[in-house]
Amino acid sequence: MQFKFHMPVKAYFGEGCVKQYGSELEAFGKKAMIVTGGSSAKTSGALDDICEVLKSLNIDHMIFDKVENNPSTANVGEGGAAARRYGAGFVIGIGGGSPLDAAKAIAVLATNDIEADELFDNSFKNKPLTTIAIPTTAGTGSEVTPYSVLTRNEAQTKGSFGTPDTFPAIAFLDPVYTETQPAAVTVNTAIDALSHCIEGYLSNRSTPASDILAQEGIRLFGECKEHLQNGAISREVRGKLLYASMLGGMVIAQTGTTIVHGAGYNYTYFKNIPHGRANGYLMAEYLRFNYSHGAEKTDNVLALLGLADINGFDALIASLIGRAPGLSDAEISKYAAITMSQRSTTYNIRPVQAQDIEDIFRKVQA
Questions:
Q1: Per DSSP, what are the bridge partners of residue 34?
Q2: Which of 58, 91, 147, 236 has the most CB atoms at less than 10 Å from its CB?
Q3: Pair 99, 37: CB distance under 8 Å
């Protein structure tokens, strides 16, 4: 048995964890840049909490609240320039995957005089600023991964970068911050977390250690599935979903993602479909495609979810998000080619070709 497992993030989980453990931020400098979107940090209460902590520690801060949904390289480039002008000592990302991923990119650009497009080279002369991550959604797990996923308009898709230095130093996970999310966002992000666990479990880079985390994340989704269906999402359920999201992030930090993410990016880029929902459209056919190479693991996924077969999985996801939109033959061909350009396709447990991706897109349509 040989594998590696690297998880350098100090995670604090539970209600009030920012105020309880926020004093640790004092070690990172006297000027913080808070990176967030337009509203989630404020409406969740996370922004007020972290500002209160920073004030108590006499740490100055500025707020960069211009992060777009699915942030582009230009968007993080603007943030990096702002961090340099301000002289930030560390970066605090608050929000869903977009602000957390943007915070990592901005932390790199704050210390390296490079164009944002050069981030994907994964070679930085200077270490990035320390990043602190505070998620307000339960889906991406970005608070415990080194990855920053950015929109690359020149390639008409998303791309990611990440090195051991881009892991956040500390993650504060408070389920209370997820309570202001709309029901649709809660469902979409929960499916994103599920896709991380399943893809990591069925990755050719999976390890015995990552499999333990993946299975627990899948089991937790199974416990929450009826609550997601009927909208009865208590604080306890939100805690389970946030924990599952963190586990999913820990999984893909070791394994990466596979064809679900690579293909799903097309729905997001071209159809403006939220990331988790885009992944969900593809997951049943992904399981069917991979079954010949991962039957035992796939059967275990279904058992952990309390489902009899892949048809039951398909029905569950459809009950949550409906069916994928129809695509033309030209769109399918284009999306398959873009998917095959993603490194994540090489991590799939079953070798994949463009025709396979085309077949999956055809089968998932309503």
A1: 63, 92
A2: 91
A3: yes
pTM above 0.90, yes or no: yes
Tokens representing 39 are 């509203």
d(CA 251, CA 244): 10
Strand partners, 326: none
Q: What tens digit of pLDDT does each residue of 271-311 get?
A: 999 999 999 999 999 999 999 999 999 999 999 999 999 99
Distant-in-sequence, close-in-space partners of 330: CB < 8 Å, separation ≥ 6: none
Amino acid identity of residue 162, one-letter, is G
Question: Check: CATH 1.20.1090.10 for 182-364?
Answer: yes
Average of per-residue pLDDT across 213-233:
97
The token pair that represents 307 in the structure block: 């489902």
Q: How far apart are CA 73 and CA 76, in angstroms?
A: 5
Tens digits of residue pLDDT in 77-115: 999 999 999 999 999 999 999 999 999 999 999 999 999
Task: Report domain 10-177's class.
Answer: alpha beta
**pLDDT band with cut points at 50, 70 and 90 for residue 40:** confident
Which structure tokens are listed for 268? 């997001």
Burial of 267 (0-12, 13-18, 19+ CB in 10 A): buried
Helix (H, G, I), strand (E, B) or coil at 258: coil
**Domain residue spans of the chain:** 10-177, 182-364
Task: Please state, as a whole number, how many other Cβ atoms lie within 10 Å of the Cβ of residue 234.
Answer: 11
Q: In 10 A of CB 195, how many CB atoms? A: 26
